[in-house]
Structures are given as C-alpha cells and as structure tokens.
C-alpha cells in the first residue's frame, strides 16, 4: 500500500519561510505544500506561481481550519509563534515551529500545557543544527566518550556584514528579541544537547562599534557571554552581525581526553583557490547556504515522525530552557552583572 502524503500549510514567507516552503514543495518525500499564509500579497503570489500552492490565506486561523491540512509550519515573526502553535494544535494539526518558541516564559509554559493536551499530535522546534551532519557526527563522538567529559564549550554565531544595513532598518522598526535570543538561541541549544545539562548562571557584555545607531534601537552588533552549567561545565558564546568574511558559525568542545571543533573555518566547500591573491578557502556567505542540508533533514524528520508515529526528541521544554537562558543573557548584559537563570523564571512570575 502506498504511503500517504502529509499535506502542509505554512505561515511566513520571508527568507527562511521561502527555504522551508521550497523544500516542502519540491524535495521532501511524502509531503505536499497545500497552503500558505502571509500578510504580504507578493509572497502569496510567489507561493502560487513558483511553487504551485493551491490555497493561500491572509489569516492564519482561516488556514488551520482547513480540514485538508495535516500539519503546519510556523515561520512567522517570533511574537506570533505561541498563539499560532495553540491555534494549530487546537485545530488538530501537527506543528513545526521555528525558534524561538516564544518570548515570554509564562506564555511558553501555557503553550506547553496546550501541546501536552494533544499527545496524538507531533510538535517539533526548528533547531536545525541538531540535523547538520557535522554537528550530528560531533555529538556522536562526544556520546562515545572520544574526548572524555566535557569541561568547556565555545560557540560562535556571527551573521555576514553584508546583511547589516537591512538589519539596522529592521531593528529601528521592530523587535528581534535581542541579540542573544535572536542569534545565540542555537548555540544555547547545542550546549544543552551536547551536555545534557541546564545552564545555571550567565554574564554577558556587548557593544556597537561599527553601527552605533543600534544603541538607539536597544540592539547589539556584537555580544559575548560566559556561562556556567549546573554541573560547573563552562561555556563561552560570541554572537554578532558583522562578519566581514561571510557567515561564521563555529563550535569547539573541550573535554578531559581531547577536543573537537565544528567548522573551525566556515568553509563553503572543499575547494582551495590558488592564484595571484594567494591561497584562498571560500567561506559560506549566509545561513541558507551553510545549513541547506540541515533544513532539509529536519523537515524530513518532521514528516517521518507523523507518518511513522515517532519522536524527533526536540520538545517545547527545549524551547523554554533555551529562551530562559537567552533572556538571562540579555538581563546580564543590561545589569552588567551575573544572572541566575532560574531568577529569570521567577521574575516573570512563572
């Protein structure tokens, strides 16, 4: 008997939304991009004309009430994630949501309750590094004890300088959630994933040197953080938006018996160019290029979890803990002091 097709609706067709939409429409087996929602008419026209999407909506709730849709991909701005997760779950749809799960801890916990009320529905968060071949291999080495017990993790996430002007325009008109929630959330998740431990306390600093206009927007161009986990394991984060050479994502894990690095140099491929300029290794220029395989793998994992009734192991709790640590980093920067992660939880009355 032929395997059934999972019909999917997507909300949000910005840069990342277009990646997910294109993959679902063209490259994910047993998936069909049935519907799309956007408040931008040009994006809906793109979905119809370029991807052949049959149904388009301006209102998310109208889309999730469509009985033909099995699942929803949420790639909207962060502030919409929680209400859209709840709306989709209550309409009986499986949900894939991009990070962060939300911006408010009490609201995240409420949404966790809604998710738990639907054990028959799948929920997955978009922490794509867990599906990147290099990170998966590094995690396997750590789990096998190849570098002993972890003592320190250092992780960089720096966007290319080529995107700074557009980000400055965005930052002066909207709220990204802050550098650490917007950028470091992936590093935080990798740290929790590799160690299996929660983050206990943090300290963060930052500055706007190339783009001081971000001071007025309450945003950061570059930030750094020192973190201590519950078992005293250490972590160092660097987050930024101004890498001159391209898109720089790098992780180093130091253990008692060795160390490993993921993408020590953010290489585009295995090509080395040798010419009058010297010896050059081209680098990745943006996240769609660097994590193309990871995005596709996480989408396939979500569809397979629905068809095979399995779990991918990324839960709303991962989203909650990641957001909590990122908010603690933002508070540590604002207070110029060490912040206990659990104190952030108490502050919002959760």
Automatic annotation (TrEMBL):
<dbReference type="GO" id="GO:0000166">
    <property type="term" value="F:nucleotide binding"/>
</dbReference>
<feature type="domain" description="Gfo/Idh/MocA-like oxidoreductase N-terminal">
    <location>
        <begin position="6"/>
        <end position="118"/>
    </location>
</feature>
<dbReference type="GO" id="GO:0050112">
    <property type="term" value="F:inositol 2-dehydrogenase (NAD+) activity"/>
</dbReference>
<dbReference type="GO" id="GO:0006740">
    <property type="term" value="P:NADPH regeneration"/>
</dbReference>
<dbReference type="Pfam" id="PF22725">
    <property type="entry name" value="GFO_IDH_MocA_C3"/>
</dbReference>
<dbReference type="InterPro" id="IPR000683">
    <property type="entry name" value="Gfo/Idh/MocA-like_OxRdtase_N"/>
</dbReference>
<dbReference type="InterPro" id="IPR030827">
    <property type="entry name" value="Myo_inos_IolG"/>
</dbReference>
<dbReference type="InterPro" id="IPR036291">
    <property type="entry name" value="NAD(P)-bd_dom_sf"/>
</dbReference>
<dbReference type="Pfam" id="PF01408">
    <property type="entry name" value="GFO_IDH_MocA"/>
</dbReference>
<keyword id="KW-0560">Oxidoreductase</keyword>
<comment type="similarity">
    <text>Belongs to the Gfo/Idh/MocA family.</text>
</comment>
<feature type="domain" description="GFO/IDH/MocA-like oxidoreductase">
    <location>
        <begin position="135"/>
        <end position="261"/>
    </location>
</feature>
<dbReference type="GO" id="GO:0005737">
    <property type="term" value="C:cytoplasm"/>
</dbReference>
<dbReference type="InterPro" id="IPR055170">
    <property type="entry name" value="GFO_IDH_MocA-like_dom"/>
</dbReference>
<protein>
    <submittedName>
        <fullName>Inositol 2-dehydrogenase</fullName>
        <ecNumber>1.1.1.18</ecNumber>
    </submittedName>
</protein>
